[in-house]
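Entry:
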Amino acid sequence: MKKRIWLLVPLMITGSAMAEESGGFMDGVAKVNDAVNGVVWGVPALVLLAFVGILMTVLTKVFQVTHFGHWIKKTIGAVFSDKHVTNHTSDRSISQFQSLCTALAATVGTGNIVGVAGAIMVGGPGAVFWMWVMAFLGMMTNYSENVLGIFYRRKNSRGEWSGGAMYYLRDGLGARKGGKTVGKVLAWLFSLFCLLAAFGIGNMTQVNSISGNMETVFGVPTWVTGVVIMLLVGLVVVGGLKRIAAVTEKIVPFMVILYMIGTIVIFVMNIHQFGAVFSSIFRGAFAVQAATGGVVGYGIRLAIEQGMKRGVFSNEAGLGSSVMVHSNSNVKEPVKQGMWGIFEVFADTIVVCTLTAFAVLSSGLVNLETGVTAAEYVTRAGETITLTKANLVSSVFNMRFGFVGSAFIAISIMLFAFSTVLGWSHYGTKACEYLLGEKRTIPYRILFVLLVFGGAVMGDNLAWSLADTFNGLMMIPNLIGVIALSGVVMKITKNYVNRTMKGSKEAPMYSAFPEVQREQELAPDPSEGN
């Protein structure tokens, strides 16, 4: 079975690049993939995602709102006031801040730039509103994933925490009456989908975005970019999680702040458009027309579908991906790490995606009434380009700053995509460890690094669609696990609130396993200052 999994990886990812030459077979694969993709990223799946977000919001008594000040204080606020949150650890775990940065490295990516532009171009300004809705609900979905990740994690033979959807499916859902087989199967499927997604959406497609932008803006050949990125990724990934976390905690704050500064400058320059932009977002969310000028009902559907889909694609709440790195945190309290999950979605979508959306909608390149984007744009250098989701944000910055603006977006995409590769390399490592054992993680990392070059030079082919599908397929088993264990999340949250906010003397809920619970109770809390 393990050998078959290794054979699946190059067949499903790199082999798809031969679609043009292999004719009927690959056409058949493409049709099957399109059908599956239509389900995993279709309306039923989005409804399921929304349902889980609503369920967890209700069960936790709207924690993201009622305890807003508390989770802000315990997350980003603690970065500036509590050394326990940022201190590096001497064991195999990482700090809370490092876990956030590594998770944000994977989530803050091209979706925050290209994805937002695409949502607006297809769904109109109203799509932004539905991105906000999905983020609001996704905060508690991500919170629940992280709470379960900490509660069901175990240490491997190297003393490193191993947690994620595969573990709470196997040991949580699997512990329920009649759930042992179902839990194991779902855990296996989640890990397989994650491993394949890591090579695709977490590697090749990201590097392809980097190489494409570097060639378009700076004239750098794709193969040169491929070699450079492959070497950089290799230097980081081979060093394992500690090195990945050490790099991402430096890259992520820098890249997010840099991009925010750029978009805030656009925001200030176009501040006179503030009212018109936000009015168009709320009008478009419920009525008027689609981006393509369709009827009212179709316009609303497109706005909802695109906003929700791109929101989830950006922050990954519900996919069960970021929990694999949050589970490596040195924190003892599941709820403490859960609150970092809330902040992760807040930062990714409510902050970064909103700034991108305002820059696009205030530029004049998008009709605020219909959402229709201008067909072409003439740059300051006199070059006429056809506007697409890939170059819309770049064109917005070019309008204000010329080549410097285009270069700024190219560099932002490069940093966003590179950090995503680093974050996903860890997700794939954990999936590989679960499926094939710890010893197989070294070959996995080598293959992951080698495929970076393939991603840089590949064209638009089936690999992109397959990667998108595998990413979405992770969501199904993960959400089943969250629903099945929603009562556990509710109990852990109530236990935390009672102890920390109401002064209750009840015993803390650290782990589902008695031996780990005892170990955590006896050990000093590395984040007790938080």
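The chain has one domain: 40-522.
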